[in-house]
Specification:
Layout: H1 2-8, H2 10-19, E1 23-28, E2 33-35, E3 43-49, E4 52-58, E5 61-68, E6 73-74, H3 77-82, E7 89-92, E8 96-102, H4 103-112, H5 114-140, H6 143-153, H7 155-160, H8 163-170, H9 174-187
Antiparallel strand pairs: 1-8, 2-7, 3-6, 3-8, 4-5, 4-7
């Protein structure tokens, strides 16, 4: 991941010795809470290996909002930007290796290097695009259509994520997901 960071940002290549110390490697087990709902996000994470999920608790019911895999950047952007309590929690789904960058260091890089600013803008736009897609899908698609879309467009989720997290992500119960899966597999030739 550090090599990807260096290759994505030419200024890091030139000044890597100056910035390398800012990226702290973390190897974490599955189900490790990186950010609690209501806590202020102090880090942005660059995921090298593994999977993380962003979610929230609604009346003691966990709702998974987004999954992140290798070579993706993760934070509660709402909290990170404004230093306000995060509406989300961030947790590892499987053992993961990531690099954390403190908010203060990220803001310094943002203000000092145009490429880093562009990267963060692309990251934010990607997240907003995902949120819009998810929002529209919840309105217009049936649960089965949402699951079929997941199989087609995000097979890594279906292969690597426990079914109860997938059900939560789709806005259905695990029992409903099981029925949908059985129906889909029984209809296949």
């Amino acid at each position: 991941m550090l090599e990807k960071i260096k290759s994505d940002f030419p200024f890091f290549e030139k000044h890597w010795d100056e910035y390398e110390h800012m990226f702290k490697e973390e190897i974490i087990p599955a189900k490790k809470l990186l950010l609690s709902q209501g806590e202020i996000a102090k880090y942005v994470y660059f995921l090298d290996q593994g999977c993380l999920r962003l979610g929230f608790n609604d009346n003691n019911k966990e709702i998974t909002f987004q999954f992140f895999f290798e070579c993706q950047t993760v934070t509660s952007m709402e909290s990170f930007k404004s230093s306000s309590p995060s509406p989300f929690f961030l947790e590892s789904v499987e053992p993961s290796r990531l690099f954390s960058l403190r908010r203060e260091d990220a803001l310094m890089l943002y203000n000092k290097h145009e490429e880093f600013k562009d990267y963060l803008i692309d990251f934010l736009l990607s997240r907003v695009t995902n949120y819009i897609r998810l929002f529209l899908s919840r309105i217009k698609d049936t649960p089965e259509e949402r699951y079929l879309d997941l199989i087609r467009n995000h097979p890594e989720i279906v292969k690597r994520i426990p079914q109860h997290y997938i059900a939560s992500y789709l806005g259905i119960t695990p029992v409903s997901l099981s029925r949908i899966r059985n129906r889909i597999w029984s209809e296949r030739p």
